[in-house]
Amino acid sequence: MTPLKLIGTWIDAVVFDLGRQMRWTFLPPLMIYFAAGFSGLTMIVGTFFVKEYLDLSAAYLAGLAFWAGLPWALKMPLGHLVDIFWRWKWLLVYLGAGFIGLSVFIMYLVLTQTTMMQAIMPISAWYVTSYLLAPSGLVIQDAVADAMSVEAVPRFDAKGDAIPLEDARAMHTTMQTLGRFALISGTVAVAMLNIYMFSGIEALDDAAKTATYAGIYLVALLIPLVSVSGVVLAAVQKIRMRRNLLRRGLSDAEADTLFERPDEETTPNPWYFIGGAGFVALSLTVGLGDVPYGQEIIFAGSMAIVLLLMRQLVSVLPPASARALIGTAVVIFIFRATPRPGDGLTWFEIDVLKFDQQFLSILSLITSVLTLVGMVVLRPLMAHRPIVYIVVLLTLAGGLMSLPNIGLYYGIQEITAAMTGGVVDARFIAILDTAIESPLGQIAMIPMLAWIARNAPSNLKATFFAVMASFTNLALSASSLFTKYLNEVFVITREVTDPVSGAVTTPADYTDLGILLILVTALTVGLPLVAVTLVQNSRLRTPD
């Protein structure tokens, strides 16, 4: 085959095949995922609002962030609730949209009707209320969107024939890829809109700044509108599809079988609600009690609860599928639990490499945009290769992409800049590293989500998504703990000066950063490869 034909085949598999697999039924859950990404619109304005208008300490805000994370602990029982009330799950999207809309509207009124709001209760109390309402709405909508992403993939073609297994597998992978694509597209839209709306704000007076902040909150009211529109669109699609089937001569029962879940009834399992309650109770007890080793206790307790619920899940699967799911979950858990360098690397980039806020923002935007491109480019690979193959590939790529950071610490930019007339400097290397590395982290979850969409029992799809998401998200907590421990051994400090006297209270010390980066790279590559080797040589081997 000629190079031109190879390029044409690759473009067809990456771009045109995505268009062939796209279905209008994919759009409703994608709208909800996009709204979730777009919800970050108020993050920057909220930070400045606290800084300029509220007297809240950093410790208080850190505690507030802890409470805001608690609604996500409820995703497990919410997922099961979605399965139980499958036909009425759209009502939960309206409920979540109500919470999000109320959160945004409170802040809009605080900025535009300050006197009236302050007469009801303190502005700080309004802010806390708004801050806690938003994640409550988002987690409700996320649980429903996961279920809708399964429902969006058709089981039968236009003639009523069952879609072949390989085609269904590809469509599920496409749906989950597009779900992550929509989520990150929301963050890209936020970045671009913030750049536009904050343009020239440093020259504005206080009143004009307040008006700008209020305008951003007003735009943020589009967030619940987008997610609700997704539900309305799904209802319209179902009505039209049902009418078409009835026109072809099918009975009501036959039409329902073709596009509704054939076994709608889900028997409530109290363990999922008990587990969710236990999760919240443990977090509240340890969080309020300021217990020593609180993070470790919450992690261990949460892991025990999630493993108990996973045991409930796999019991309904055939033995071979149960073992494959456990093996897949273990591999992805280890992949996501590997440590990171921590904030010391960012401090080094700011203090030594002189990366400023604008350049770091550019790196963030590049990451989001290229993650979208990476998902599209690697989608055919995820659709046709086993999950462990993808994990090994991402592991090796991640290790390779850690090398530029190590090189920057040891001064490779001085050599490359001298050889290229200053073109390949530290910023060039950082952009190149970001451009290549950005797709890796987000891609890791897609194959497992697609596996659940294909293989989980149809009456427990949302429950499977919620529990497995909780398990793999615990891997991120493990990664944070692992990172903390390494940073306690290899202590990195940045220079801190007294704001009054200007005296240096903590000197900068990046001596151990090089060793830390090398060790983190070795663990990032070694641990997943060991996990894959052990799993693939055991009864948990996953062929899918």
Automatic annotation (TrEMBL):
Main location class: membrane
Entry keywords, A to Z: Membrane, Transmembrane, Transmembrane helix, Transport
| Protein name per its UniProtKB record | Folate-biopterin transporter
An annotated GO cellular component of this protein is: membrane
UniProt feature coiled coil, ranges: none
Upper lineage is: Bacteria, Pseudomonadati, Pseudomonadota, Alphaproteobacteria, Rhodobacterales
- Name a Pfam family for this protein: BT1
Q: Any keyword Membrane?
A: yes
Query: For this UniProt entry, which segments traverse the membrane?
Result: 30-50, 57-74, 90-111, 181-201, 213-236, 271-291, 297-314, 321-339, 359-378, 387-408, 428-452, 464-482, 513-535
Mode of membrane association: Multi-pass membrane protein
Q: Where in the cell is it found?
A: Membrane
